[in-house]
User: Fold this.
Amino acid sequence: MTGAGAPFTTRFAPSPTGPLHLGHAYSALLAHDMARAAGGRFLLRIEDIDRARARPQWEAQIFDDLGWLGLDWPRPVMRQSARLPAYAEALERLTAMGLTYPCRCRRADIEAAARAPQEGAPQFGPDGRIYPGTCRGRPMAARGEDDVIRLDMARAVQLLPADAAFTETGPAHAGTHRLDPDRLVRAVGDIVLVRRGMGGSYHLAVVVDDAEQGISHVIRGEDLFEATRIHVLLQHLLGLPVPVWHHHRLIRDDAGRRLAKRDDARAIARYRADGLSPADIRALVGL
Ligand code: GLU
Assistant:
């Protein structure tokens, strides 16, 4: 399935864990502009699945900053914290397919097991350190309260159609990308589907929510390009539509580093306080 023929619907999906900065402004403005140019829809989704880090004041600031930038979106917005039953249902389906297992490894265990890596094998992928497989094969019934749930990638890729692929329209990787099963196993590995203390992981939540919101085009930063393979894989496994992807350039600081939440100096709120206008922000990010 592909979202290419659906009415153009895109979204901006910030996590309310800090101030929006220039990079977020670029992402939101670009998505909004592309939706408008296509006569489509721009949605806002609050990715507050990490309850330990999400804060209501950051969420309020997101609404305020985006409104100030001149953006508009349908309300009420989707919030991941209200979507846990949908993530649980998706997890159940993957479990029924025999693709999940509970993992009790702590970070230190994974580091220790990873100290003797296979020669030439990548150590880090888009989900962080590639899991060495210690708990693989544990039955779901053995799940402890503090366990995370992982995807058995070697099994998962066996269910991928041979022509599984996605379309990217962003500047750095434009074209059609086939999902390579060996690469998924070696360079991505057994990703986390449910994090400790959370009802899902970013990867699971994002595909379930993009499908629910009818997202035809995902417009987001280049830093998430490699994670797209995970998302397209999950879309195939769960029978969800695969959208078109557009990963845009990142806004960097003067030293060429990409901006992070802690870069308060480039927070939109700071520019506002300094008297800049939304047009100034557009100019700063090259729009
Ligand atoms: N919530 C993610 C972030 O703030 C973005 C997720 C996405 O666009 O897929 O980085």
